[in-house]
Amino acid sequence: MPGEIVLLTPDALRNRLTGPAERPRVFNFWATWCGPCVHELPTLKKFAEAHPEVDVVLVNVDVPSLRKSKVEPFLKRHDLLKLQHVQIDAPDPGLALFTAAPNWPDMIPVTYVVLADGTIAKQFNGLLSESELEGALAPK
Fold first, then answer.
1. How many Cα atoms within 13 Å fall on the side-chain side of residue 126?
2. Taking CA atoms, which of 47, 66, 98, 139 is between 20 and 30 Å from 30?
């Protein structure tokens, strides 16, 4: 649900990331303290607005105890409430990512472009541009 942060266990997140869905998805892993992550959030927001046929999901990796005090105010301040939000429900989200995300590179930001059948079409490690995101979803 847009605006609401859904807490997911690492296994539930992996199922959501790699399972089939009604349409393609873009999963972006980010944190409030990550400068490059914050820098690319406007690109993801713009992409989501231009592509309502794609679900854009922001996966926050801050510790869950910061959800109310830091993550929710951050999303509001940066006008990101219309996107889908997930937060990893684990004491150590960084460690949990090795279970939650295939081929986890141990860095953020990371973005997965996932087709409706659950196939990961592209993985971006680090900052991405709008054109790279557009290209990853273009028909081959």
1. 0
2. 139
Distance of alpha carbon 101 from alpha carbon 15, whole angstroms: 9
Going by CATH, does the domain composed of 5-112+122-134 fall within 3.40.30.10?
Answer: yes
- Which two structure tokens, joined as six digits, stand for 72? 């929710």
Domain ranges of the chain: 5-112+122-134
Report DSSP letters for 57-116, one per residue.
EEEE-S-GGGIIIIIHHHHHHTT-TTSEEEEE-SS-HHHHHHHHSTT--S-S-EEEEE-T
Query: Is-contact 116 24, C-beta < 8 A?
Result: yes
CB atoms within 10 A of CB 129: 11
Q: pTM surpassing 0.70? A: yes
